[in-house]
Design goal:
By secondary structure, the protein is α/β, with parallel strands linked by helices. The protein has two domains: about 110 residues, Rossmann fold (3-Layer(aba) Sandwich), CATH 3.40.50.720; about 180 residues, NAD(P)-binding Rossmann-like Domain (Rossmann fold, 3-Layer(aba) Sandwich), CATH 3.40.50. Helices cover about 25% and strands about 15% of the residues. It contains eight helices and 13 strands. The longest helix is centred in the last third of the chain and has 18 residues.
Length: about 300
């Protein structure tokens, strides 16, 4: 068995040998031509795919499995993969992102860092804060990130609701109430986590019309992709209502250009797409690939399978 890799990952060949002795790893840079004699079973590639991806994926080369070394495929040409199963390291950063999300929700409720002192205050003992207990946390999308956030939010006795693409058989599942449309979701929650994939169907799903139907004071946390949120519509909703605060770890475009209004708006908490960061983030992505390699060799179902028709 042979794996072609666009990536040079230290120690990967040794780890592959421990899982599947005899599997050959061939490094082929993404910008190099592909030999007509290439025969391989799998391709490990980046979230961008590479210039030679169409050549590698020609049926004559025999690729049956493509793994994207990343947690999302919104930048990957998924429709180029026609004759192989496509997977990604989905969920590898979910715990780190969930912790970041809860930090944003807590800082919003407890008015941090606004309540830190740098001079003597007018009053001690009193502050404008709100509880998490009894508040409603909503999710747009309920994949691995949202599920990890939900587990943590339940520890704060928050109410949970979610909107998903495929309706659940039960309206309530594991303490989460599933709603059937975006208007209901926006009207029911105090904090809203955007955790859906970036697809044509979710592009600017939060826009001027939908944001206008939100509960007054809604706090939006976007840890998915910037394209889910129409930023100009957000600006209007922050200035004129009903949105009270936006905590954005993802924006459109990235990097955000100097002087952009999001840097200075008093109702925006902006971070540079770092919610996924943790000491083990990269190792988790590699572990997902190695787990799938074992499954591929043994003929078992793969994890993180991407539906090319849906784009995630």
């Amino acid at each position: 068995m042979k794996i072609v890799s666009h990536l040079e990952l230290p120690g990967l060949a040794q780890k592959i040998a421990q899982i599947a002795p005899g599997v050959e790893l061939l490094h082929l840079p993404a910008d190099e031509p592909v030999s007509g004699n290439l025969r391989a079973d799998a391709l490990l590639t980046s979230v961008l795919g590479g210039d030679n991806l169409p050549q590698i994926l020609r049926p004559a080369h025999g690729i049956r499995w493509v793994h994207v070394y990343g947690t999302g495929v919104d930048q990957f040409p998924v429709h180029a993969v026609r004759h192989a199963e496509l997977t990604c390291s989905r969920g590898a950063s979910s715990v780190a992102i969930a912790e970041w999300t809860m930090a944003m929700i807590l800082s919003a409720a407890k008015r941090l860092p606004d309540n830190w002192l740098d001079r003597q205050p007018e009053h001690w003992y009193f502050a404008d804060t709100s509880p998490l207990q009894g508040k409603c946390l909503g999710f747009l999308g309920f994949g691995s990130i949202a599920q990890q956030v939900a587990r943590r939010a339940q520890g704060f006795d928050m109410r949970l609701c979610a909107l998903v693409r495929r309706p659940r058989q039960a309206q309530i599942e594991n303490g989460v109430t599933f709603v059937d449309n975006l208007s209901k979701l926006l009207a029911c929650c105090d904090h809203l986590v955007l955790a859906a994939p970036a697809t044509p169907a979710t592009h600017h799903i939060l826009n001027r019309d939908s944001l206008a139907r939100a509960r007054p004071g809604l706090h939006i946390v976007n840890v998915a992709r910037g394209s889910l949120l129409d930023q100009e519509a957000l600006r209007v909703a922050l200035d004129q209502g009903p949105i009270g605060l936006a905590s954005l770890d993802v924006v459109e475009p990235e990097p955000l250009p100097a002087g952009h209004w999001l840097y200075q708006h008093p109702k925006v908490r902006l971070s540079p797409h770092i919610s996924w960061n943790s000491p083990g983030a990269v190792a988790n992505m590699e572990s997902t690939f190695l787990d799938n390699l074992a499954r591929f060799v043994e003929g078992r179902p793969l994890l993180g399978v991407v539906d090319s028709r849906q784009g995630y």
